[in-house]
UniProtKB/TrEMBL annotation:
Top-level taxonomic group: Eukaryota
Keyword Nucleotide-binding recorded: yes
Pfam families membership: Pkinase (PF00069)
Protein name from the UniProt record: Protein kinase domain-containing protein
Location of region: Disordered: 1-23
Cited SMART domains: S_TKc
Residue span(s) of domain Protein kinase: 27-354
Molecular functions (GO terms): ATP binding; protein kinase activity
Organism: Cyanidium caldarium
Length: 359
């Protein structure tokens, strides 16, 4: 078993078994939330203070080392109002089940730990429960803008500190309780979470392919993974389009299933169907940089259908047409094919759509 780990602790080499812990339980698992990209997650409670937290189970020496790195990285860029905090890493012995029992079996070769995080309500669950897009188009457009402002503010903060998120998607957006500036009440604030795929950049030895194919930037499918901050902005555009398309939040527009390589090819064709034919100069550059990749058939002369489709989705719903157009323009800037010409997270925050007042 392992002792408490903080961001300032020295992590042992992956081959070393963590030290045993004799600490009393500190957290209780209360409710299963689901399986995340890096392990199972529970809603939990701190036994001493009663604070509600999120507990992500970490199993195995390699996963433990990654969790240590995530903890150190997140604590180096927080607190920030739009980034979900990670508090500590504790041993399996310090977490009990809702029945008061230790339910984790571990060994020196397969230690169990829990990453203790700030609790946040999953945004997708709230959206699907309240279904704002069906009840009030105006309220949903305001909510979409508020969500994107929070997500992009988090990205701008991370990028300014040389950190790439690498997994921007609706499943990693949360509503977290924050004390308002006057300190007299709690507010529900949009926060970007799950930095398990985050990394410092530049870092030549770090994997740079975005974790989730449905939000992967166009250039990444072509082998160009050298501009991951621009890829984060593309992923933010995917999230915004998911909200503006008003079909079912939590289901990305470019999601074409799994099963390489056909799913990647279908994703590319979905992108081209929405955004039109990419510039030939970009395709040629990627082909020259990656001559080992098989040639692609790219339909020529295809126009972008982004504006037409989103406008049609909002037609007759009573939302302000000018604001809808601003939202479309913002998404279009996220989807500029050339990553070097795509707007940055800071520029995205300065766009008129996100500068507008949010009620």
């Amino acid at each position: 078993m392992l002792a408490d780990v903080t961001a300032s602790s020295r992590a042992p080499p992956p081959s070393a078994a963590p030290p045993r812990s004799t600490s009393l339980p500190r957290y209780r698992r209360v409710e299963w939330c689901g399986e995340g990209s890096s392990g199972g997650v529970w809603r939990g409670q701190a036994l001493e203070t009663g604070e509600v937290v999120a507990l992500r189970r970490v199993e195995g020496v390699a996963a433990l080392e990654r969790a240590r790195q995530e903890l150190a990285l997140v604590q180096s860029v927080t607190p920030h109002p739009h980034i979900r905090a990670v508090h500590t890493l504790c041993s399996g012995a310090q977490v009990i089940s809702d029945h008061g029992e230790h339910s984790d079996e571990e060994s020196e070769s397969e230690p169990v730990a829990y990453l203790v995080m700030e609790y946040g309500e999953p945004a997708v669950e709230r959206w699907q429960a309240e279904r704002w897009w069906e009840r009030s188009a105006t309220a949903w457009l305001q909510e979409a803008r508020s969500v994107m402002r929070g997500v992009v503010a988090a990205l701008a903060h991370l990028h300014d500190r040389g950190v790439v998120h690498g997994d921007v998607r609706s499943d990693n957006v949360f509503y977290c309780a924050r004390t308002n500036p006057s300190g007299d009440r709690q507010e529900s604030i949009v926060a970007l979470g799950d930095l398990s795929h985050a990394r410092r950049w530049p870092a030549p030895d770090a994997p740079s392919l975005p974790a989730y194919a449905a939000c992967r930037a166009h250039e990444c499918f072509l082998g160009d993974e050298g501009q991951p901050m621009a890829a984060d902005v593309w992923a933010a555009g995917c999230l915004a389009l998911e909200l503006l398309w008003m079909r079912q939040p939590g289901m990305p527009v470019f999601d074409c299933g799994t099963g390489f390589p056909m799913s990647e090819l279908r994703s590319l064709h979905a992108i081209w169907d929405w955004l039109g034919t990419p510039p030939s100069s970009l395709l040629q550059r990627c082909a020259e940089q990656h001559p080992d990749r098989p040639p692609l058939y790219v339909p020529s002369g295809r126009p972008s259908r982004l504006q037409e489709r989103v406008q049609r989705a909002w037609a007759g719903r009573g939302a302000d047409a000018d604001e809808v157009q601003l939202a479309i323009d913002w998404v279009a800037h996220c989807f500029v094919y050339e990553p070097e010409l795509r707007m940055s997270a800071v520029q995205a925050l300065q766009h008129p759509w996100l500068r507008g007042n949010v009620s």
